[in-house]
Amino acid sequence: MTEPRFFPPPQPLDLQALVALTGARRARGPEDASITGVAPIGWAGPSDAASLSGSEDAEAVGCSLAGVVFASAEFEELAPEGAVALITPEPAKALAQVAAALFPSALRPQPVFGEGVAPGAVIHPEAKLENDVTVDPGAVVGPRAEIGCGAVICANAVIGADVRLGRGSVVGPGATIVHALIGDRVIIRQGARIGQDGVALASGSGGHAQVPQTGRAIVQDDVQIGANATVDRGADRDTVIGEGAKIDNLVRIGHNVTVGRHCVVLARSQVPPGATLDDFEVVGNLEAAT
Q: Is 124 assigned a catalytic role?
């Protein structure tokens, strides 16, 4: 695979660790295999793991040098000769679990100054920070904000007054959060905007009057919000992003929206004001249905 120069060198995972991590069953291949990377099956080398779904190019599979291949039982026989074949009903998910174990820092924005509150961070004296919080230079934490244990606030991010940021959550560089309650283990990537007001107008013959938006943005546990995505706060009720939802880059979530648990909203999509997405719904890259 391409050299992962921006991430710490991974510790090797042996076959026992791979089975314990993924629940896969070893079908064949050497018992002493270990891997330090993941790659597409046509690019993988002896120290890499790959997955096999049956849709790959036959030539690429046939000449693959992958050390470990995750495959479903249906495609077990297609695994390259010499590779360890690990059988699982969800090969792609197993490979993702392995990649996360090898490169955990690739899963979320990282502070550039290491752990702790760096010089140049601005923390209001009325803000409350639990233990092991990291705040990079240029970041601002406003009055009465509460930051949970293990949270990370990267450079130039702004946490507004009275915001709650849950334990283990990460706010990427340049992101802003206002009028919002953020759960635990939430990942908010670079440049995202959470809790600002959207455009709510009362129109009449004399023009358009801005309607004050007094709701909140509620982001539940284990949500991910992509770079430069926007989540408007509610107008007369809350905007809610449900547990485990994944919001891609450049998504716009309008005011009074409810995004269900474990929904996926793909890049450049718009969820219009007042819309509701059911649990596990997937929205494409145009305007979401109301």
A: no
| Cα 132 → chain centroid | 21
pTM: 0.89
How far apart CA 43 and CA 125 sit, in angstroms, is: 53
Say which amino acid occupies 221. Answer: D
CB of 42 closer than 8 Å to CB of 53: no
Looking at the structure, do residues 263 and 128 belong to the same domain, yes or no? yes
Q: Are residues 194 and 95 in the same domain?
A: no
Distance in angstroms (rounded) separating the CA atoms of residues 170 and 172: 6
Q: Are residues 64 and 128 in the same domain?
A: no
pLDDT digits (tens, 9 = 90+) for 60-98: 787 889 999 999 998 888 888 889 999 999 999 999 999
For 137, other C-beta atoms within 10 Å of its C-beta total 16
pLDDT digits (tens, 9 = 90+) for 98-133: 999 999 999 999 999 999 999 999 999 999 999 999
Does 143 lie in the same domain as 226?
Answer: yes
Domain closes at, from 55, 78, 106: 106
Amino acid at 60: A
Asked if 99 and 126 sit in the same domain, the reply is: no
Q: In which domain, by residue range, is 196 found? A: 122-283
* 272/213 same-domain check: yes
Q: Which is the catalytic residue, given 124, 208, 255, 262? A: 255
Same domain, 28 and 94: yes
CB contact set of 6 (below 8 Å; sequence gap of 6+): none
The β-bridge partners of 176 are: 158, 193
Is residue 166 classed exposed, middle or buried when 0-12, 13-18 and 19+ CB atoms within 10 A define those classes?
A: buried
Query: What token pair was written down for 9?
Result: 């060198």
